[in-house]
Task: structure prediction
Amino acid sequence: MEQNQAIPMPRIGDKAPEFKAVTTQGDINFPADYKGSWVILFSHPADFTPVCTSEFMTFATLEDKFAKANCKLVGLSVDGLYSHIAWLRTIKEKIEYKGMKDVEVRFPLIEDITMEVAKKYGMIQPGESSTKAVRAVFFIDPKGIIRAIIYYPLSLGRNFDELYRALIAMQTADNFSIATPADWQPGDDVIVPTAGSCGVAKDRMEGKEKMKCYDWFFCTKELDKESVIKAVTKK
Ligand code: BEZ
Result:
């Protein structure tokens, strides 16, 4: 392939591109090693940088919360393994930030000096930087399918509550065959599939089904928080 030839970017619904990599937790074979779990594969621009440090501390602190929802974390930057190790040691030994200290990053951080993985996943976006990965987030489901992709520029630290919300919302959509409205949080009403026949549309508008309809195509129902959390945390 020519050096500057555009590489197709993975899209929602695609199989996660495969790769083998060296990480701070040993070698990985992706996504095969993660079959049966959700995984968030995320990139960051560089080790020993402030926004990335704040992100890693936050994600490491939330790792158990994501694990309870059957989701593993895998980080990547185009730095080398020894830089990664030194940076993670510095985070644990020296950095105290927003009440977080002594933070151990236990999830794997991929070394990608050749940018092979970053390019496969469209994490190098030359308009932003041709030498650093942007802040990409890939949500990959237990079957190895990409379910959501979020990209942020170098200067913008991610909102990890939103990443968790997105994960739980996708799992809830799968578990209960519903969709989630704007700003949905567990415990909020969820959207039922749109009526597929005139009869169902009529029944719903006449209040014959246990749901709230704003119009025939827009109906919601209650789904309690306990059921949502129970479903995402079941083994
Ligand atoms: C940071 O993580 O602080 C950062 C990294 C690359 C460019 C700008 C900021």
Observations:
- The chain has two domains: 19-159, 177-232.
- Helices lie at 50-68, 81-94, 116-120, 160-176, 198-205, 225-233.
